[in-house]
């Protein structure tokens, strides 16, 4: 999986950081300390890590990912990372 999208709501200094969906690489999610989570009323599963996005991006860089874009949407910040 060459792309990964991570996001955080409201404050970027604190977690949790959303970093995967039900089809994400389980080993990579484990490396990011992310666990599967499903909010009440949601019909989808996501992975959440307790770490702030800076820590997640540092970890992803060590395994070859690079940030290719960033966007803000309301109170959410989203980063797209790619691995060659």
Protein model, in words:
- The protein is globular.
- The termini are close together.
- The chain has a single domain (3-82), classed as Gtp Cyclohydrolase I Feedback Regulatory Protein, Chain: K, CATH 3.30.1410.
- The protein is α+β, with helices and mostly antiparallel strands.
- The chain has two helices and six strands; from the N terminus they run ββαββαββ.
Query: Which CATH class is shown?
Result: Alpha Beta
The number of helical runs is 2
**First CA to last CA: what distance?**
10 Å
CATH fold descriptor: Gtp Cyclohydrolase I Feedback Regulatory Protein, Chain: K
Rounded Rg: 12 Å
Q: How would you summarize what this structure contains?
A:
This protein has 84 residues and is an alpha+beta fold.
Key terms:
single chain; 84 residues; alpha+beta; Gtp Cyclohydrolase I Feedback Regulatory Protein, Chain: K; 3-stranded antiparallel β-sheet; 2 helices; 19% helix; 43% strand; globular; GFRP_sf; cytoplasm; hydrolase activity; GTP_CycHdrlase_I_reg; hydrolase
């Amino acid at each position: 999986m060459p792309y990964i999208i991570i996001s955080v709501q409201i404050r970027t200094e604190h977690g949790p950081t959303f970093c995967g969906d039900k089809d994400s690489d389980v080993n990579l999610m484990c490396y990011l300390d992310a666990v599967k989570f499903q909010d009440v009323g949601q019909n989808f599963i996501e992975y959440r890590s307790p770490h702030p996005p800076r820590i997640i991006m540092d970890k992803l860089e060590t395994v070859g990912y690079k940030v290719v874009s960033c966007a803000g949407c309301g109170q959410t910040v989203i980063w797209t990372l790619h691995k060659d």
